[in-house]
Amino acid sequence: MDIGQAFTFSALASQFLVGLSRAMILFIVCSGMSFVLGVLRVPNVAHGSLYMIGAFSAFSIASLFGGSPTGFWLALIFAPLVVALVSLIAERALFCHLYEREHLMLLLFTFALMLILGDLVKLTWGAEYRSIMAPPFFRGSIPIFGSAFPRYNLFLLIIGPLVAISLWLFTNKTKIGKISRAAAVDREMVGAVGINVSWVFAAAFVIGCYLAGLGGALVAPTVSITIGMDHGIIIEAFLIVTIGGLGNMWGALVGSLIFGLTQAFGVLFWPQFAIVFPYAAVVIILIWRPTGMLKSVW
Amino acid sequence: MKKNSIWSIIIAVLVIIVALVIHYVPGPPKIVRAIKVGIIDCYSGPPAVYGKDALNGFKLALDEINKEGVLGTKIEFTTRDTKFKVDIALNMAKELVMRENVDVLVGTINSGAALAVSDAVAKKEKVPFMVWISKSERITGEKGHRYVFSTGENTYLAGKAAGVALSKKPYIKYWVGGDDYSYGHDIANAAWRNLKALKPDVEMIGKSWWKPGEPDLVPYLTAIMSAKPDAVIFCTGGASMTNIMKAVKATGMSEKVPIWIHTATDHAVLKPLGPEAPEGVMGTIDYHFYYPETAANKEFVKKFESAYGNPPGFPAFHGYITAKFIAKAFDKAGSIDKEKFIDALEGMKIASPAGELEMRACDHQVTLPMYLGVTKMSAKYGCVISTDIITLTGDEVMPTCDEIRKARGK
Questions:
Q1: How many angstroms separate the Cα of A244 from the Cα of each of A40, A170, A285, A296?
Q2: CB of B252 within 8 Å of any CB in chain A?
């Protein structure tokens, strides 16, 4: 393709919007991971598996209602709750006993959890592709700047900022949010003040996993819901959280934007090697700012 | 002589006598052992649906075959999961050959794995290997040899069918996009090679490659649409098929630009999509459970559905004919001998749900037809199926034996 063709305003604008909507999904998933990382100081390797369970749960709920719009909206509400419940069980039954242990133990535990959840998903839902549909209102595309832009992606562009604002309000304006932020900075002090740190951790973990489930439920109508989803997303999530600044929610937003936009523009300028662009961006950022773009929590 | 020396001689003589007895005196009558088939395939992740389908077709045929038996014994099988990885496939294949002593190896879906096993295990250990889903033309083409067979279609056949179909259309500017692995590139090269040969004025205005299984293909499609090609060729494999169909529908691409994708008309892809499958997409495949409506096909479909609850896909069809070929070849060979099996298999013809099929002697490839169709919603099946089907017979799409010989460098 001639490079000249890539620079039409219409092409650039539509790629920008597509990249932005992809970044929104990444942000929702990564903000959860960042939150858990900030408070518990543990990178949750099972985050991708929870994202996958969110997508599969959304499929099950939507299928219960025959793929109707009510099914879709109910799936969006309840699938993340299912994931939150799964994570709560994992946390209270097993994880919380490991908090005093070495850091590495927690990481290994999340890795084991990823493997177990992956197989549980296969046992529960089977190996086939699943698919759900967005409500009729979200199907099809609308012409924006002369290019077709899928309506569902427009919906994502609205949901993303909503989640960001809700999360900000939560961490800054609610009591639990402020306690979580305090625990992220100095957990001993929080315990000394008389707050049950164990329950703070549980709450933080569940909220982070809820976000993973929400990301999975939101992405479900746009992709095939398969068993490999967890591996695909977890690498990207780790990279985004790292380049954004560990534990920093706004960092997750910045990282997601970089990732989503470099991929979308890479596709436009150099389609054969488009896969490389986001990772090249990650390398450049880490060389320039090894601790991430924004301040990390620790 | 000393006493010790006498004892040594006596023991040595006894050992020799015992050895001679064991060698020459006939033992108890040998029980004819079962024929062992070792299956390596992917049973985890997105490709698992195809591996399972093939295994089901294979088992269905075995149930029929084992009722009468072959050479007075039964055919048994054992499976190993390759997880779509080449190194695991190699280890599993070696284990099946060395430890389980299988007579025939069967599998797999990953073309890279099939090529590796064909070279490192089948050729080296001289064990016949029948490939049933992998579609790289190199398996029976340039990398083919005496010990590898294919009961599935490959990128050469698909490419030729694409060339034949697209050369009849007025499109000049093409965009090619696909999964960045061997199957994706093979099918792109095959389709383009044939199209360019039949219609020299076609032009490739751009290429896009994404990682297999890439979940978000929308940015690629919007970029392609911005370039305004006349038509698009997509080269997606099992991992990305559903994603590309969804993205095509979401961006409305199928209504704006003509698209051809090999296996777009595969039921395993179209059924879960339901009404979200795009219409108007051109596709090729070598088996439909609903076409042609011959008695043999209908019977096969009925038996499969009552056994497994869903209609057979093309992997099930390949699995079924693989079992039939194995049984008939051992029967003709007269004994469980690998070399005699291969000799019997060459040129063998069997009856199948799609009519009579031949295992070509020159390249060990089954002559399969190609069905070219366009996707359209079917009220009868509640999902999108292939319509306006044109059948290209095996002879029209297969490479000639001379081309094979040249490719293998003979």
A1: 18, 20, 9, 8
A2: yes
B42: contact with A, CB 8 A cutoff: no
B213 touches A: beta carbon within 8 Å: yes
Q: Do A139 and B226 touch (CB under 8 A)?
A: no
A121 CA: distance to closest CA in chain B (Å):
11
Name the burial class of residue B377, with classes exposed (0-12), middle (13-18) and buried (19+) by CB atoms within 10 angstroms of its CB. middle
Between CA A44 and CA A39 the distance in angstroms is 12
- Nearest CB neighbour to B218, from listed A67, A127, A150: A150
Correct CATH for B156-285+370-397 of 3.40.50.2300, 3.40.50.10780, 3.20.20.70, 2.60.120.10: 3.40.50.2300
| Window 45-64 of B, Cβ < 8 Å to A | 45-46, 48-49, 52
- Residue A159 contacts residue A218 (beta carbons within 8 Å): yes
Domain ranges of chain A: 7-288
In 3D space, the residue among A71, A46, A47, A70 whose CA is nearest the CA of residue A59 turns out to be A71
Using the Cβ of B181 and the Cβ atoms of chain A, whether some distance falls under 8 Å is answered with no
Average pLDDT for B290-301? 90
Instruction: Answer whether A147 sits within 8 Å of B205, measured CB to CB.
Output: no
Write out chain A's pLDDT in tens, 298 residues. 444 455 678 888 888 998 999 999 999 999 999 999 888 888 899 999 999 999 999 999 998 988 788 899 999 999 999 999 999 999 998 888 887 788 788 888 899 999 999 999 989 998 777 888 888 888 878 888 777 788 899 999 999 999 999 998 998 899 888 898 888 888 888 889 988 888 888 999 999 999 999 999 999 988 878 888 898 899 999 999 999 988 888 999 999 999 999 999 988 888 878 888 999 999 999 999 888 888 887 6
Length of chain A in residues, anyone?
A: 298
Residue type, B384: V
Partners of residue A131 in chain B, C-beta under 8 Å: 242, 246, 272-274, 276
- Which chain A positions have a beta carbon within 8 Å of B180's beta carbon? 275
Look at domain A7-288 and name its CATH class: mainly alpha
Question: Is A22 in Cβ contact with B216 (below 8 Å)?
Answer: yes
Give CA–CA dist B311/A131, Å, rounded.
19
Interface test with B, best of A119, A141, A259 (most B CBs within 10 A): A141
Q: How many residues does chain B have?
A: 410
Q: For residues B283 and B262, what is the distance between their CA atoms, to the nearest angstrom? A: 5
CB nearest to B242's CB, from A11, A131, A147: A131
**In sequence order, what are the beta bridge partners of A149?**
A142
Residue B249 near residue B221, CB atoms below 8 Å: no
Given CB atoms, is B280 within the 8 Å cutoff of chain A?
Answer: no
Q: What is the ipTM of this complex?
A: 0.75
Q: Please choose, from the candidates A157, A295, A298, A133, the residue with its C-alpha nearest in 3D space to the C-alpha of residue A220.
A: A133
Q: What is the pTM of this model?
A: 0.77
Its CATH class, for the domain covering B36-153+294-367, is alpha beta
Are the Cβ atoms of B222 and A18 closer than 8 angstroms? yes
Query: Which amino acid is residue A12, in one-letter code?
Result: L
Predicted local distance difference test score (pLDDT) of residue B1? 54
Tokens representing B272 are 């879960």
Q: Smallest CA–CA separation between A179 and chain B, in Å? A: 37
* B211 to chain A: closest CA residue: A275
When computed from its CA atoms, the radius of gyration of chain A, rounded to whole angstroms, is 19
Please check the confidence at residue B31 and state whether its pLDDT lies above 60. Answer: no
Query: What is residue B27's predicted lDDT score, i.e. its pLDDT?
Result: 60
